[in-house]
Amino acid sequence: MKTHDMDSAWSNRYKAKVDRVSPQSKRHTFERLDSCFLGVSLQNRNFVRPKLAGIVQWIGRRFPYCTVLIGDTIHRITLEVTQGLAPEVALIEALALGREFVDRERRVFERWREQTQFSFVTCGEIQQRPAYGGYHRDLVHLFETDIPFRESNELATPTIAVAPPISARKKASVAPWTTSRKSLPCSPV
What we know:
Keywords: Transferase
Strand content: 5-15%
Family: Belongs to the CDPS family.
Helix content: 40-55%
Structural class: alpha/beta
Largest sheet: 4 strands, mixed
Order of helices and strands: HEHEHHEHHHE
Protein name: Cyclodipeptide synthase
Number of domains: 1
GO molecular function: aminoacyltransferase activity
Organism: Candidatus Kentrum sp. LFY
């Protein structure tokens, strides 16, 4: 990528603003935490470089740590529906799109590396973890039985969610960021 291309991404800056905070109880205190979560929806206009640069800048000014989830395997559903791809082909394409996004946009995140340590994880990687099955079952159960949880997820778009302070985490966890039971994030393929 040419420097000119990156410079134009910064000069045509979008400003990020808080639309929703999850959990809602952290709405007025989330900026006191040391980490956040950014869910990236592949091929979504909210994550084109100028908008992504605005989001990353906003995070870089507030949080020392941020986990960036690349929704690769969940994107396979979009590819199946919008492009009529077979599930196996859609999965291969979605995984490739996830890798391409990280490779293409890494410099946007690197610009803020002195302020924020960004770590990247994909839905595909999460699905390979031993604890995944239990977390997924718990999320499905919560979605099916907790109306406020379901409604909050049906209204949600991938944005920024607050994570517990790193010092308070004992185990890796999966945050509830979903739009429907059928498309729970990182659902098994």
